[in-house]
Write a structure and sequence with these properties.
The complex is a heterodimer of chains A (203) and B (472). Chain A is of the alpha+beta class and 203 residues long. Chain A contains five helices and seven strands, in the order αββαββαβααββ. In chain B, α8 crosses α9, α13 crosses α19 and α19 packs antiparallel against α20. Chain B is elongated, with a radius of gyration of 46 Å. Classes of the chains: A alpha+beta (203), B alpha+beta (472).
Chain lengths: 203, 472
């Protein structure tokens, strides 16, 4: 396994955990459908609903393809108002490019694991910085990438029966949004930051 | 002053952590981060929360408490419960506990926690950073525990590995030995243990008997009893040639036990009636002890066991009847055994004689009651002749002259002789048959008992004495 593919795997795993964590912390599903699992040696919440799990798995697989083929700028979990589908909150993972030879300084990935654990801890307590979670919401995942990257994996995505479409403009723009930084991480492996955006509509 | 400023700084830090950094501040985390005692950290958190609440307005901090106390389990048993609870449930949890032993702030954070995960994550990181000294600020300490250095730890680990390897090797060797059946001491002990456990009391009795034999001086009635019991049980299991020899001892043993019981009953009855018997009993007891001692001494080797069996036979014959007893005596006897036997016989004879005399004087009803006993007494009368023989020597005892001297029962004597001859021929044969013959011998005198009862015992005794003197 090359360092690049290993990095992609780690990143895609982290994205999966983050999605579950956001769904739990923002109360998109009742707490009963979540179960504690161990990831990075700490307990994390994972949704057990098969439809949700399948959807998240497909999203993560697609992100893995995109990451392996080219550049991915942002991965955001967008919480939308159910009726109007206007975005209320957005949890954004902003990624730099995965660097090469990153395992030399951290061969056992201790620092990487610790950093990802820190992200999860911050994510789990972010709701204190945000407005109370609103009801009647839905969610979706947006990936910011280049056209060339999307076209490279487009066929594979169709084959997987999970084609991606361009996000609606309405879902992308958030009026009077407020940025809440959660955590940033700079290392030899990756530069990454996590932040949340919330619209003033909630206030 | 310094202390006050430290506290103030700590309060500022806590506020910064919680409000600006949106961190979860647990007491442990605070203690380790600031290198302060855990109780100081708890107090600082308490002061912080107190200040925030006193400010009034809408405080945006959430507090979790650690509560410990005696509660009840589902089964209704008392148990010590420890819980980390949010502030809203604090009173509920406290009420559920019978006694609250501890209650302090566990963590303060801005976020409203949905589960313990963030608390665990917070402590996880700080404990991981201070893994070697994570409890240095704890108020729970054990002075005997010391941290090993890296070198000693590695050494001990190596030793453990070596020990494990050694034990594995030993285990293999042991298993091989047991499989092959080699007589290593370990396997022997194991085998012994295995043998002892299932058999239980019987084997333990054997063991105790053998131990007592080893002791030498220890000889008592329990030993004999256990011996007898073990023999009886053992003979049941055995077969073939050993069974033949065992039976030889076995049947008389049983009879002896029964008869001894009868004798003892007899003795009790007679002692109640006549004081003179007491002296006889006193005499008898030490002799029995001697017998038992001899038995105990002779147990260990097989040869001695045989001897003992013979003595048992002899004893039983003495107790039962002369007819059965005499034929078994002769050729095979050993001098020691004979001496013991003769002593016993002599005293028993005296005892029984006196008993009989007095009994006949008392009443007829007692005679009818002691019909069986009377038969025995008559038999013992014949044994009296042995007693005199004892004084002379055992060669004399074997002589038939004593029998001949009994003028009253010449017929009986002749019958006895015939029986004796047949017994002598049978001694080398199956002892089961012998036992039946003994019973026959018992049965025969029954018929003659009536005639014997008519004749006075004194007369017979005198005749025997006379015969003795005549010989001299």
């Amino acid at each position: 396994m090359t360092e690049a593919s290993m990095g992609v795997d780690i990143l895609s795993e982290f994205v999966e955990v983050c999605i579950h964590c956001v769904l739990y912390s923002r109360g998109l599903y009742p707490q009963g459908v979540f179960e504690k699992r161990i990831k990075y040696n700490v307990p994390v919440q994972m949704c057990l609903h098969p439809g949700v799990c399948a959807y998240i798995t497909n999203v993560v697989d697609s992100i893995k393809m995109l990451l392996s083929e080219g550049q991915v700028d942002k991965i955001s979990v967008v919480i939308l108002e159910e009726n109007s589908t206007t975005p209320l909150e957005r949890f954004v993972i902003e990624l730099g490019s995965v660097k090469s030879n990153w395992t030399e300084k951290d061969p056992h990935l201790f620092q990487t694991e610790q950093a990802l654990r820190g992200f999860l801890l911050k994510l789990s307590v972010t709701d204190a910085l945000l407005h109370p979670a609103s009801k009647d919401v839905t969610w979706t995942v947006h990936v910011h990438t280049q056209d060339s990257t999307l076209s490279a994996v487009d066929e594979q995505l169709v084959q997987k029966d999970f084609p991606w479409v361009e996000a609606e403009e309405k879902q992308q723009q958030m009026k009077n949004s407020r940025l809440v930084p959660i955590k940033s991480y700079n290392s030899d492996w990756l530069n990454m930051q996590l932040y949340a955006e919330e619209s003033d509509k909630n206030s | 002053m310094a202390c006050e400023t430290d506290k103030a700084l700590l309060q500022e830090n806590i506020e910064e952590y919680i409000k600006d950094d949106n961190k979860v501040v647990t007491c442990k985390w605070l203690s380790l981060m600031h290198s302060i005692d855990i109780n100081v950290a708890k107090r600082a958190l308490h002061i912080f929360v107190h200040h925030q609440r006193n400010k009034g307005g809408n405080d945006d901090i959430n507090v979790t408490f650690f509560v410990a106390g005696l509660g009840k389990s589902k089964d209704g048993d008392l148990m010590h419960k420890c819980a980390v609870v949010p502030e809203t449930e604090l009173e509920v949890v406290k009420r559920s506990l019978a006694t609250v032993t501890s209650c302090h702030i566990f963590s303060v954070q801005k976020a409203k926690l949905k589960d313990y995960t963030p608390l665990y994550m917070t402590d996880y990181e700080v404990i991981k950073d201070n893994i070697d000294k994570c409890n240095r600020f704890s108020s729970i300490k054990c002075p005997w525990v010391s941290l090993k250095s890296g070198l000693s730890a590695s050494k001990s680990a190596q030793q453990d590995v070596v020990k494990v390897v050694l034990s594995e090797n030993k285990g293999h060797a042991f298993s091989n030995k047991t499989e092959t059946g080699n007589d290593s001491p370990g396997s022997k002990t194991r085998a012994l243990a295995k043998k002892v456990e299932p058999k239980g009391s019987i084997t333990s009795m054997f063991a105790s008997a053998s131990k007592k034999d080893g002791g030498g001086n220890e000889s008592s009635k329990p030993v004999q009893k256990t011996d007898a019991a073990s023999k009886i049980k053992a003979t049941k299991k055995k077969g073939g040639v050993t069974a033949f020899f065992e039976k030889k001892g076995d049947s008389p043993l049983k009879q002896k036990d029964v008869l001894l019981g009868k004798d003892s009953k007899k003795m009790d009855a007679s002692s109640e009636r006549f004081e003179s018997n007491v002296t006889n009993e006193k005499k008898q007891d030490p002799k029995r002890k001697k017998k038992q001692a001899a038995d105990a001494d002779e147990e260990a080797p097989d040869k001695k066991r045989r001897r003992r069996i013979k003595t048992d036979l002899f004893d039983s014959s003495d107790d039962e009847d002369v007819e059965a007893g005499e034929p078994e005596e002769p050729e095979e006897e050993i001098e020691e055994m004979e001496q013991f036997e003769v002593l016993d016989k002599g005293i028993e004879e005296e005892h029984k004689m006196t008993e009989e005399e007095q009994k006949e004087e008392v009443d007829d009803s007692s005679l009818t009651k002691s019909a069986v006993v009377g038969k025995k007494r008559k038999r013992t009368k014949k044994v009296v002749s042995k007693h005199y023989e004892d004084e002379e020597g055992f060669m004399v005892t074997k002589k038939e002259t004593v029998w001949e001297s009994e003028t009253d029962e010449e017929d009986e004597a002749s019958v006895n002789k015939q029986e004796k001859k047949s017994h002598q021929s049978n001694t080398s044969e199956d002892m089961g048959k012998l036992a039946t013959k003994n019973t026959k011998a018992k049965a025969d005198p029954k018929g003659k008992a009536a005639a014997k009862k008519n004749s006075s015992p004194q007369k017979s005794k005198q005749t025997s004495l006379m015969s003795f003197f005549k010989k001299k």
